[in-house]
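Worked example 4.2. Below are the chains of a multi-component assembly; read each line carefully before continuing.
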Amino acid sequence: MRIRNEKMNISVLGLAVQGALATMCAMPMLAYADAAQDAVAAIRRPTNSVEIGVENVSQKSAKFGEYNGLNKSGTEFIGNFSVRGGDAYDGGNGTLRWGVTGTDLGTTSRELGATVGNQGRWNLNIGYDELRHNITDTYQTPQQGSMGGNAFTLPANFGAFDAATSPGVRTLNATRLGAFHTEEVGTTRKNTSFGAGFNFSRQLSLNFDYNHLDQSGAKLMASAADGRAATTGTWRAEAVSILMNPTNYETDTFNLALNWVGDQGHLTGAYSASIFKDGYDRLSWQNPMLTNASTAAAGVYQTITMSTAPSNKLHQLNLSGGYAFSSATKLSGGLSYGRNTQNDSFLTALPEIFLSPKASLDGLVITKHADLKLTNQSIKDLMLTASLKHNERDNRTSSGIYQYYAINSTIAGVDTARNAPYSNKKTELGLAGEYRLDKRQSIALAYDMEKISRWCNNYAIAGSCLVATGNSEDKLGIKYKLKAGNDVKLSAGYSYARRKVTEDNNAVTALSGLGGVVGVGPMDVNAQNYPGYSSMTFAGRKQDMLKLGINWQANDKLDLAAEGRYAKDKFDPILGVQSSKSSGINLDATYAYSENGSVAAYASWRDSKKDMRIGGTGLGAQNAGVTYAALVAPTNIWSNQLNEDGNDFGITTKHKLMGGKLELTGDLSYSFDKSRYSTQVPYLATCGLATVGTCGDLPDIKATLVALKLTGIYALNKSSKIAIGYRYQQLKSDDYSYNAFQYGYSSLRLMPTNQVSPNYSENVVAVSYMHDFK
Amino acid sequence: MSKWQRIIAVCAASVGLGLLLASATPVLAADAPKPAVANKDVAKDLVLRGDAKCTRCHDEADSPELLAIATTRHGVKGDARTPSCTSCHGDSEKHLGHKGSAKPPSPDRTFGKKTLNSAAERSDACLTCHKGTKRTYWQGSQHASNDVACSSCHKIHGQNDKVRNKKTQTEVCFTCHKTERNETHKISAHPLADGKMACSDCHNAHGSAGPKLLAKNTLNETCYTCHSEKRGPFLWEHQPATENCASCHTAHGSNISPLLKSRAPFMCSQCHDGPHNSKAPYGPVAAGNQGGFVGTNPTENATGRACMNCHAMVHGSNSPAGALLHR
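Applying the procedure described above to all two chains together yields the following structure tokens:
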């Protein structure tokens, strides 16, 4: 076990890069101290800038500061700079250019970068980018262990509340409640990058890019322990805990590319690699149902062990290029071959694991890609395009039989499953033609075909590993564009797509025959789903899409735009998602009311609906030979709809006063989103009772975001400005999923965390001084 | 590779490259432009080679914003590849030969809002030099076939090109992509609004071999650029996750965290109807007592993270005990 102290984790490489950046930052100050320039020389020189200031955040909020580093109340430092230089700006034959930039230096969203290059010859760049993702500051847990660590235990006096107790009577007494403490959960990403380029000649160049991503902290995840009386085997329902799953990750990414550019053709050959390493091989936590190891039994453990993301590698060779047969006929294409491997040692000596045939996966996925695109405009007004693409994920990992204790397995029962190394390949053909009817109008037709196959190599038992072994889709589209005069542009498009699925209902999926005899199958049909049910992802469907757009440049000052879209999917299966619809309208207007001012506004409306029809409980077993007709009566089907609405409004204005010395900007936006689930269970008369609650509407999931930004920038002189900014942002959200995390709510089926749906009302005031210099 | 190994590797690469550059530069000097000749026209050039015929009118008093091209890569005269005004705007003889006080005819090729040149003509001016690499798939791409020209997004004459700055890039993209603009305002979104991510982190606006102009060949490959911990291969794979992250997630923003298209248990019911609890209907019970349910035991199958309370490893598990994606 390793405990990672995030605060002390100072990246040496990061420090080295920052040191180099700081040194480079100092260079320009000296270089330009005495520069005297005439008007043209001044134009040639880049404008450098430095901004320093402070901003005050009114209250602590992880959600407001989710990505911007402003999650704490109080004062933050504002620091931004951009400095460039080099003899390339002298107007002579110099080609040296360098630049150093820094943004948001006072926050955990800081970024630093530097480039230097002899243009046309070589270039180097380094960068450092930090991003703290604040997930929550209200999360509470009784589990002890640091955020970012991978081992959590309950305090010794927590006691078991206990395996023999029904969830309804489990309680958190004062001692247990006292064990709860708040953790600020989030992840920190630190990217350090280095890049270099070298031009051997006008035709030949080499580029190298390297990026090191260091990720620390944690994300929240759930995990369940079995609640079972250890001695009697009486099941007492799961006990779910929300845990801080550590993100102790490092990813190194390389790309080396050799580029050749000729008069008629160009070619790039590249090698890239992505090496992911997880510092932990497990996450362990203590089962609150069982704090005494002596009472543990098969299926019930004191310490629960979760696997973590295994370290993996991807090596890829890429080749892409193009050739112009003539100015009218051009070809482009690419090839790619990748090896994705993973061979982390499996967890061993754990009570959950009964039989593991291997010590590690020795996983191998080969990815292949090929594409070709031909464009032709031999006829002046007709543009033709033909393209062909192939992508393949060939999982060559072996398949084996594994035995283990699952949550909710019988006390002496061992579950059996075989791993399914999924492979798929997709081939796409595209044909398109656009014909210009005259100078004002054009019409485009397109046909796209897509075929997908899915399989498993080396599957441990005979039969297909999945039901939807293939899909094919044909799509036809038409688009019309019109320029009415010089001021109005119209476009209208419609497409129709038909997707079909090839299914093997006798597939023996990874979990078919769960608990059954190894190698015997098929025990189930349709992957244990009801006959007639298909997954939305693969199901046959018809799709209609319509898009309309108009843009009117009323005059030099006023620009208006409107667009609308509508999409409808109708799915084939009797059970499963039946249909989905979505529509949206966007309106935009920009008005430049004077040389010194403009205003822009937008408004958007969108809604979507998805209908689902599900075979309910009580339909009997899904055994082989049982038909849909024999199983499903209409009264045994329940349905569910998801309705989503969203509205956005925004207005932005800019205005210059006092002869341009004072620039005011204002930005107001409002966004509202709502999601609602409705369920109907016609076969259960009591479904609507408050004690049953299986039909009816769930409370809306709502979020309203209002943001106002006001900025005034006053020019003290040609090179100095004072900026004063005020920002108000309010989020009101309501999400029923947080109900389960409240104390006393769920009879301890789910350990409370006190997390609530995010709400905040923030005021941020900023004052900064900006200095520009040449 | 340890941190010290990485530092040594980076230093070694830098030193090696520096030595290579130092030795190679003289060889490349042959590619450099010839020294300025004492020619009358050349002497009048202000910022670009051969710009004198243009800058005699468009000088620092008339058009300082045009001359700001000097601060860009195009303005580096020492680089033999950089253009003159006419490289992009055409010879424009009518424009140059115009006399009198009336408004002169436009140059052969213009790039502003009122241009009469087609998007293809405008882009050709750039693609003459900017061939290959990221622009390999420009021809016939979504942008090219929708009359988007390079100049629709890029500012050529200014020092600051909004679309090449992570903080401001979305302002440019959202000019057309309004649905995506709205989606980034949702409660769950990638950090685009905070300028910590740019559209170009995932998309190649110049054309790509991937879907939706994605930078990589497939959607999953693009997502794994940052989320490499989900790449696997895992012992226990979740098939839709291996094929298409968008089976469950939406990239630009969602009302349901984290960037989900729907919520468990309903989202799971879109693919599972039969095994275990996936056939069970849920209504207000999923919202627990606060949602109107008055029973004593709201089920953990529907509340909180619902299915993912137990099936937590939805992206794949590498535990021999993880067949059900529990561990």
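Take a moment to check your reading of the output against the notes. Chain B has a mean pLDDT of 86. The first helix of chain B runs from residue 3 to 28.
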